[in-house]
Amino acid sequence: QVQLVESGGGTVQPGGSLRLACAASGFNFNSATISWFRQAPGKQRDVVATINSDGYTNYVDSVKGRFTISRDNAKNTVYLQMNSLKPEDTADYYCSRLYRGTRYWGQGTQVTVSS
Question: I want to staple 45 with a disulfide (CB 3.0 to 4.6 A). Which of 39, 55, 90, 100 is the partner?
Fold first, then answer.
């Protein structure tokens, strides 16, 4: 079955960096489009970045120039490198795959940006 397992969250000061990882299994990873979402307390879950099978990437405006999504097909893993973090980046981060109308989620990893 589809499994997505996030890791790499933590607490960092403003201006700091974190790299999240999403380890995938149970499907043909090389052909999959994977997205990172985030959900801050009391807010809806929104997409942050997406990467398709060709390596094409897309970002929400608020993270452009600061976040980079990438993939390692040999490791079935998608990464989210987050630089210049801001307090407003504080959220639970989830990786996700949409397949035949079903969206699959990992369990999430918490990111806190605070001084």
Answer: 39
